[in-house]
Write a structure and sequence with these properties.
Largest sheet: 12 strands, antiparallel, barrel
Number of helices: 1
Helix content: under 10%
CATH architecture: Beta Barrel
Structural class: mainly beta
Strand content: over 45%
Number of domains: 1
Number of strands: 14
Strand order of the largest sheet: 1-2-3-4-5-6-9-10-11-12-13-14
CATH superfamily: monomeric porin ompg
CATH class: Mainly Beta
């Protein structure tokens, strides 16, 4: 899912002039993608996961949702339930922005809510820049955070791609806290419309080695076309050496994304 307040950059505009001509030369019109979105911009969005850009193309809107069921050791689907919603819009060339929300319900009835405003700008090559503004509400406490990241995506072959650093550093104001995250993912286009992959991340709350976490997630995603994806994943919440049991914290996720 696509889930910081720096102004990233404005889209570049191209221009030109005629030199040493008897009559003014007609200047070619800039590509449509640099001016405005076509009504069917989403129709040209790549079907294959490994071919997709980090930043949404101009005119493409995406709405995604994810339902996560926590399954700790000895539990069934009652450990926790998370609902994640996110929307993003490619409203400038190389620039998208959006918002996301999370609702977590724990067995004892406590709820956690989070709101995330985000923007991404495509840099040169495989790199992008991302900023997030977050608000997290727990019973009796609300935290505000600011995050920066440098998303990276590179194709290793016709059906293989690697991604990294979709999240990097988030700093929370009250109480003062931070979260360093170093994610990496490997994505395989198993069939024309079917992608499978492995995502892992090294997480270091407050830069404290004793609090380190290493979540791992395996997913499968099927694409109905340029408009719709859906899939499922299985996650281990912490497989680091200091975890009490690498397989004690588990989750099953169902997800879908719609573009229009």
């Amino acid at each position: 899912m696509r889930m910081r307040a720096w102004i990233l950059a404005a889209a570049l505009s191209a221009g030109g002039s005629a030199w040493g001509q008897d009559e003014p030369a007609e200047e070619p019109a800039p590509p449509a993608a640099e001016v405005s979105a076509s009504p069917g911009a989403h129709a040209s969005y790549p079907v294959r996961e490994v071919d997709r850009p980090t930043v949404l193309p101009l005119g493409v809107r995406e709405a995604s949702t994810e339902l996560a069921f926590g399954i700790s050791k000895g539990q069934t689907f009652g450990d926790s339930v998370d609902l994640l919603l996110d929307g993003a819009w490619g409203f400038r060339r190389r620039l998208d922005a959006g918002a996301g929300a999370v609702l977590m319900v724990l067995p004892e009835g406590n709820t956690f809510r989070a709101l995330d405003l985000h923007a991404q700008y495509q840099l040169r090559g495989p790199w992008a820049a991302r900023v997030d503004l977050e608000a997290i509400h727990a019973p009796g406490d609300t935290q505000f955070g600011f995050g920066v990241a440098a998303p990276f995506k590179h194709k290793l072959g016709a059906g293989l791609a690697v991604t990294a650093l979709e999240r990097l550093l988030t700093v929370y104001a009250s109480p003062s806290a931070s979260l360093l995250t170093l994610p990496v993912g490997l994505h395989v286009q198993a069939m024309g419309r079917l992608a499978v992959g492995l995502r892992a991340a090294f997480e270091l709350p407050d830069f404290d080695p004793d609090l380190r976490r290493l979540p791992v997630r395996v997913y499968g995603q099927y694409t109905m076309g340029a408009r719709l994806d859906f899939g499922a994943s299985v996650a281990l919440l912490d497989v680091s050496a200091n975890a009490g049991g690498a397989f004690d914290g588990r989750a099953i996720n169902l997800f879908a994304a719609l573009r229009f």
